[in-house]
Amino acid sequence: QVQLVESGGGLVQAGGSLTVSCVASGSIFSINAMGWYRQASGKQRELVATITFGGSTNYADSAKGRFTISRDNAKNTVYLQMNSLKPDDTAVYYCNADRVLTIGGLDINVWGKGTLVTVSS
Asked: How far is CA 107 from CA 4, 86, 102, 104, in A?
């Protein structure tokens, strides 16, 4: 069974930087796409950024120019470097892995439990 564990969340001042990480575990052969989503209090979960196995990236407009997603396929890890943080970036950040090939088969759309990022003004 695939598990995603996020880390690196915390409290940061506006204008600051933070990097969150997510490690996938569970007899994994490969992961197609990995991504970050976020959910602010009282709002729906929204896309932040995704990255394919080959390194192609996609960003939400709110993340473009400030956030960078990257991954280490050998470590089954995805990162989100966040710069110039704003109070509006405050949310629980969730890691997602799509089409994870494991020894037990194919897992689709796996989610982590999230890590809280709080940006103070």
From this structure: 12, 34, 7, 9
Would you place residue 1 in the very low, low, confident or very high pLDDT band (cuts 50, 70, 90)? confident
How far apart, in whole angstroms, are the C-alpha atoms of residue 7 and residue 70?
15
pLDDT digits (tens, 9 = 90+) for 26-61: 999 999 999 999 999 999 999 999 999 999 999 999
Give pLDDT, residue 19.
98
Three-state DSSP state, 74: helix
Strand residues in 40-114 grouped as ranges (E): 46-52, 57-59, 67-72, 77-82, 91-102, 105-107, 110-111
Between the alpha carbon of residue 7 and those of residues 29, 50, 104, the distances in Å are: 22, 17, 26
